[in-house]
């Protein structure tokens, strides 16, 4: 398997229609889509600067919800918490930058991965499913920060450019393991998912439409003719808790 580069990923065209209203408060979402990692990081930090919007806060919320003391490690169960760093999301989006449409995060926690995805890429809608109610509430809090920045940036009559949909739900209970609408991009930070939960992710992925791209952390979806999934590449990237392999895969 070769190292990932943007050239190794098949491309589709991008619609810039939704980006033309963005101004300097969202510097990365300008119509040119010319992005620099520094600008993206500055933009993300300016929206999510409060303690309650940090990954550490989400980590503690997760531990509290599971009856654990704040501050410890995250790896006790499938509900253990860790995040893909925003900078990592930006780099991965650079690799798959010709994708657009609908992005999902299965086990979305604080929602920060979806915000980082939408900051660096022209998705029209984002869906996050999270099991723990307090983390789901934190994602809604973070959404309010995003909307506040949008209102500060644009005139109030401008409708939100990206539709965010956070649901307090169990991945294993998704009806028929079918996501509606179909994702263009499905992200799953599955490092701590056990075999049963990951089997659900596998079924959900196999039920996606041809062309769907998957970003899988640590665990690779089964590939081959029966599954209709192939691996485009893999690379080590940084998480809040250390380095992990991210697999970029596609429904074919
Ligand atoms: C490692 S964290 C990933 C957080 C975020 N997606 C990221 O990558 O930065 C995994 C998340 O999956 C959630 N989770 C675990 N089992 C789940 C399930 N059955 N349904 C929905 N969410 C689940 C956990 O509560 C946790 O927030």
TrEMBL record:
<protein>
    <recommendedName>
        <fullName>DOT1 domain-containing protein</fullName>
    </recommendedName>
</protein>
<dbReference type="GO" id="GO:0031151">
    <property type="term" value="F:histone H3K79 methyltransferase activity"/>
</dbReference>
<dbReference type="InterPro" id="IPR025789">
    <property type="entry name" value="DOT1_dom"/>
</dbReference>
<dbReference type="InterPro" id="IPR029063">
    <property type="entry name" value="SAM-dependent_MTases_sf"/>
</dbReference>
<feature type="domain" description="DOT1">
    <location>
        <begin position="77"/>
        <end position="224"/>
    </location>
</feature>
<dbReference type="Pfam" id="PF08123">
    <property type="entry name" value="DOT1"/>
</dbReference>
């Amino acid at each position: 398997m070769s190292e990932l580069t943007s050239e190794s990923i098949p491309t589709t065209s991008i619609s810039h229609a939704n980006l033309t209203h963005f101004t300097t408060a969202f510097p990365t979402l300008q119509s040119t889509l010319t992005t620099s990692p520094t600008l993206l990081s500055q933009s993300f930090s300016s929206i999510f600067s409060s303690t309650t919007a940090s990954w550490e806060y989400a980590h503690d919320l997760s531990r509290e919800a599971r009856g654990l003391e704040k501050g410890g490690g995250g790896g006790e169960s499938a509900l253990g918490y860790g995040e893909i760093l925003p900078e990592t999301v930006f780099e991965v989006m650079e690799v798959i930058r010709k994708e657009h449409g609908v992005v999902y995060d299965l086990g979305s926690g604080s929602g920060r991965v979806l915000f980082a995805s939408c900051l660096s890429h022209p998705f029209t809608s984002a869906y996050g499913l999270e099991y723990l109610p307090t983390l789901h509430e934190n994602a809604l809090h973070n959404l309010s920060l995003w909307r506040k920045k949008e209102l500060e940036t644009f005139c109030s009559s401008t409708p939100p450019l990206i539709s965010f949909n956070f649901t307090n739900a169990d991945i294993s209970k998704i009806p028929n393991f079918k996501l509606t609408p179909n994702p263009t991009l499905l992200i799953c930070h599955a490092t701590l998912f056990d075999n049963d939960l990951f089997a659900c992710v596998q079924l959900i992925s196999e039920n996606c439409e041809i062309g769907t791209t998957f970003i899988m952390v640590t665990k690779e979806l089964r590939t081959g003719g029966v599954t209709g999934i192939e691996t485009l590449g893999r690379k080590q990237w940084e998480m809040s808790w250390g380095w992990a392999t991210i697999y970029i895969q596609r429904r074919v």
